[in-house]
Design goal:
By secondary structure, the chain is an alpha/beta fold. It contains 8 helices and 12 strands. It has one domain: Phosphoglycerate mutase-like (Rossmann fold, 3-Layer(aba) Sandwich), CATH 3.40.50.1240.
């Protein structure tokens, strides 16, 4: 089985949709995916993801199943030195890296700040939804691998968001999502590919073969959108700061 996890196109957060650039990126995704044999499409209920998916679905004459757990990872953390709750992946590295538990698969959500934001509970909700989807397609979770009850080479496409993408990958690859949130950056309209490996009959694990692929943008002569990144150097006033 192959999972293609798609981050929505360049977002206009004010209307939960896409910018003009984002719509063009969605067109290029549709051209890329139209060449594939896709078993199923799944989409976040949020506008920017649904709009990104819409062009692919229209081009291929298909529909998508909407799952609430594919929405952007919602809970926010309240840090004692800030007045307002903040997004968990916008935390400064000089602060969160002081706590070793954030690097640990079994302990990352057990700190006071994480428990206060119910981050672990939200992640478990995503894990459960993902496992139910995979079971529907023949792969039943057992511990940290999957029982291949109906082995297949189906392709599934999930249109969603960066934050929840990292939660999905943390479950499949057994890595703390904090490491993924802060160490990876998926550009708008990027495609991450995760494929099963069944090295022993009936026992499957997932392996990531590509993260944040934007070759469809480069093939069309387009640079990736900057959304999701912070300034490359501090003196870049035209790029995102805190």
């Amino acid at each position: 089985m192959k999972l293609l996890i798609v981050r929505h196109g360049d977002p206009d957060y004010s209307i939960d949709s896409l910018t003009e650039t984002g719509w063009r990126e969605a067109e290029l995704l549709a051209e890329r995916f139209s060449k594939l044999n896709v078993k199923g499409f799944y989409v976040s209920p949020m506008g920017r993801a649904k709009d990104t998916a819409s062009l692919t679905l229209k081009k291929m004459g298909r529909t998508a199943v909407e799952y609430p757990w594919l929405r952007e990872f919602a809970p926010r953390i309240q840090k004692h030195w800030q007045d307002q709750p903040n997004c968990v992946w916008d935390w400064l590295p000089t602060e969160w890296t002081k706590e070793s538990r954030y690097f640990e698969l079994e302990a990352w959500s057990t700190t006071e700040i994480m428990e206060g934001g119910h981050i672990g509970e939200e992640a478990e909700w995503v894990f459960e939804g993902l496992d139910q989807l995979l079971a529907k397609h023949g792969y039943q979770r057992e511990g940290k691998y999957y029982r291949a009850e109906r082995s297949n080479e189906d392709t599934l496409i999930l249109f969603c968001h960066f934050g929840v993408e990292c939660v999905i990958l943390s479950h499949l690859l057994h890595v703390s999502p904090m490491v993924l949130w802060h160490g990876l950056c998926a550009a708008p309209a990027s495609v991450t590919t995760v494929v099963t490996e069944e090295r022993r009959k009936g026992i499957a694990s997932f392996r990531m073969s590509a993260f944040g692929d934007i070759s469809h943008l480069y093939a069309a002569g387009r640079e990736p959108s900057f959304a999701a990144r912070f300034c490359e150097t501090f003196d870049r006033g035209d790029q995102r700061h805190d």
